[in-house]
Amino acid sequence: MNCERLKGRVALVTGGGRGIGKAIAKRLYQEKADVVICGTTEDVLKRAAEEVATDGREVLPIVCDVSDAKQVRAMVKKARERFGKVDILVNNAAIMLRHIGFERAVRPFYELDEADWDRVMAVNVKGMWLCAREVFPDMRSQGWGRIINIASDTVYIGRGNGLQYITSKAAVVGLTRALAFEVGQFGITVNAISPGLTQSETVRENDFGQMSEELAKNSAIPRLEYPEDLVGTAAWLASDDAAFVTGQTISVSGGLSLH
């Protein structure tokens, strides 16, 4: 593994305090990127920043609700003030269970709460657009940028219940494709990573053990998926090795879905 592919780059990872986001932030840091992480819980972010910063270089934690344009603008301003620019955006922040609760999140579609639906769409879809819009000037001005959106294999396997989450992740695929066409002329690539049921803190806290085991048995690689399984793909997409890859959604799920 070349551990310096991202030297001189600045990466912003939303939802970087936990799970997939924290694992990706750690790998980008190991590849020598300067790293900014954001989330909504200050103490969680501070602990994550300390955990990611393994060689003494600072990891900058910023509290931000990505669905709020003013907070996104302030976050990117702080990142620029500290590191001068943002080269890589990992749009990972998302809502499903931890913020609205397991029981409300997995109701059938006709029992969903309208406010929960709106909140999921605001963070999972609108938040990606707001963050991409805010970092775009840096990427355009230097003729180089990487935007990596985290989607979900639920889009392909279509499990029932949790309609608001699955719909939001389908929107991420569309956003990725459309945005790739708009920014490709500026040397910016836009791709998505589609995980399966990943053993993050949220999944473990909400007793998805039985579902996780069932999905693993039906995957081409019959084992559980962990956040660390996604980081190699993220680092590759962020690097010059993937300079001619854009508009793609890459399933990293051990063959949970095949398409």
Can you characterise this structure?
The chain is of the alpha/beta class and 259 residues long. Helices cover 46% and strands 15% of the residues. The chain is built from ten helices and seven strands. The protein has helices at 19-30, 42-52, 69-83, 102-105, 114-142, 154-157, 163-183, 201-205, 209-217, 231-238; strands at residues 10-14, 34-39, 59-63, 88-91, 145-150, 188-195, 249-252. The protein has a seven-stranded parallel β-sheet with strand order 3-2-1-4-5-6-7, with helices on both faces. Strand 2, helix 2 (42-52) and strand 3 form a beta-alpha-beta unit. Helix 5 (114-142) runs parallel beside helix 7 (163-183). The longest helix is centred in the middle third of the chain and has 29 residues, at 114-142. It starts with 9 loop residues before the first strand and ends in a 7-residue tail after the last strand. The mean pLDDT is 90.
Largest sheet: 7 strands, parallel
Strand content: 5-15%
For the terminal residues, how far apart are their CA atoms? 28 Å
Strand order of the largest sheet: 3-2-1-4-5-6-7
Task: List the main descriptive attributes of the protein structure presented here.
single chain; about 260 residues; seven-stranded parallel sheet; about 45% helix
Structure summary:
The protein is an alpha/beta fold.
Strand and helix map with partners:
Layout: E1 10-14, H1 19-30, E2 34-39, H2 42-52, E3 59-63, H3 69-83, E4 88-91, H4 102-105, H5 114-142, E5 145-150, H6 154-157, H7 163-183, E6 188-195, H8 201-205, H9 209-217, H10 231-238, E7 249-252
Parallel strand pairs: 1-2, 1-4, 2-3, 4-5, 5-6, 6-7
